[in-house]
């Protein structure tokens, strides 16, 4: 029953009930009930009606009012959180991105070897701070008490496909990991690792084709990023200037995931796995 219907029932039920009672009393009961007794019965009917049906309707009205107030408060809180998340993204996150670009330029300085360790340290710090900011944004946009359908604007599948579409490379995406399988922090970390792998393919692999495959559930999953590029001839985690891959490795270690980078014939394969491989 809607709020409006309850209000109309509260207004009309006493009126209609008393109208029917007075009509019946005057038309059929005057010979049995005197006017004085009838006048006492009328307020009694109003009282009985009030403590039974009308009291129940008032409780329903109060409950609906409380629910409306709770929804308005929750909506206001979510709007404030979303506004703060946008400010974080447009301010701090964009500034970090600009700083990252400047670090990239510093890498190609003629004294590259001299500055390499310093660049790696700066870039690692930028990645870590960027991670914290993105996690803060994700936490602000996530409300465990609210319906997930109202909070989540984009699924993991769509985010991964959007990443693949942003690179100048033909990328096939096959994604079946459900959104509920990962908490907000896991989503942020996984998307950052996938982004790093895609960027490496675009920048270094000289590939013409790439694949992203994700499968599993909340207990175990595996994400595979594969390309047909030139590959590598050494352990890519050893060189100190491979800060992107090393930070990816640190991310997976912090999340207790397994990161594997291998060359299989003409393909380079990056695997991110939670709790073992999926058969």
From TrEMBL:
GO terms for molecular function: ATP binding; phosphorelay sensor kinase activity; protein dimerization activity. It comes from the Bacteria. SUPFAM superfamilies: ATPase domain of HSP90 chaperone/DNA topoisomerase II/histidine kinase. InterPro entries: HATPase_C_sf (IPR036890), HATPase_dom (IPR003594), Sensor_HK_TwoCompSys (IPR050482), Sig_transdc_His_kin_sub3_dim/P (IPR011712). GO terms for cellular component: membrane. Residues 81-141 form the Signal transduction histidine kinase subgroup 3 dimerisation and phosphoacceptor domain. Residues 54-81 form a coiled coil. It catalyses: ATP + protein L-histidine = ADP + protein N-phospho-L-histidine. The chain crosses the membrane at residues 37-58. Residues 189-272 form the Histidine kinase/HSP90-like ATPase domain. Keywords: ATP-binding, Coiled coil, Kinase, Membrane, Nucleotide-binding, Phosphoprotein, Transferase, Transmembrane, Transmembrane helix, Two-component regulatory system. Its EC number is 2.7.13.3. It holds the Pfam family HisKA_3. This is histidine kinase.
């Amino acid at each position: 029953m809607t709020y409006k219907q309850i209000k109309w029932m509260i207004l009309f039920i006493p009126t209609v009930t008393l109208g029917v009672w007075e009509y019946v009393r005057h038309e059929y009961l005057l010979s049995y009930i005197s006017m004085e007794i009838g006048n006492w019965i009328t307020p009694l009917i109003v009282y009985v009606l009030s403590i039974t049906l009308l009291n129940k309707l008032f409780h329903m009205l109060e409950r609906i009012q409380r629910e409306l107030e709770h929804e308005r408060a929750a909506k206001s809180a979510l709007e404030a959180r979303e506004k703060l998340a946008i400010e974080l993204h447009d301010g701090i996150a964009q500034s970090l991105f600009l700083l990252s670009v400047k670090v990239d330029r510093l890498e190609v300085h003629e004294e590259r070897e001299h500055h390499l360790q310093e660049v790696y340290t700066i870039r690692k710090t930028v990645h870590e701070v960027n991670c914290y900011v993105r996690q803060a944004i994700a936490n602000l946009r996530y409300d465990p008490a609210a319906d997930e359908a109202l909070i989540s604007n984009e699924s993991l599948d769509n985010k991964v496909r959007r990443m693949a579409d942003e690179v100048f490379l033909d990328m096939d995406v096959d994604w079946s990991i459900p959104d509920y399988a990962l908490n907000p922090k896991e989503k942020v970390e996984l998307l950052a690792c996938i982004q790093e792998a895609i960027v490496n393919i675009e920048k270094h692999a000289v590939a013409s084709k790439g694949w992203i495959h994700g499968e599993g559930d909340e207990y175990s999953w595996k994400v595979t990023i594969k390309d047909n590029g030139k590959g590598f001839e050494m352990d890519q985690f050893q060189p100190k200037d491979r800060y992107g891959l090393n930070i990816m490795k640190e991310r997976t270690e912090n999340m207790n995931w397994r990161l594997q980078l291998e060359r299989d014939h003409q393909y380079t394969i990056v695997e991110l796995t939670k709790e073992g491989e999926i058969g």
